[in-house]
Amino acid sequence: MDKEKTVEKSKSHTFFKILIIVLLIVIAISSVINTFYLFSINTKLSLLPDFNLFDMQNSLQKIEDTLDIGILDIFKSK
Question: In the chain, where are the structural domains located?
Answer without folding.
Answer: 2-74
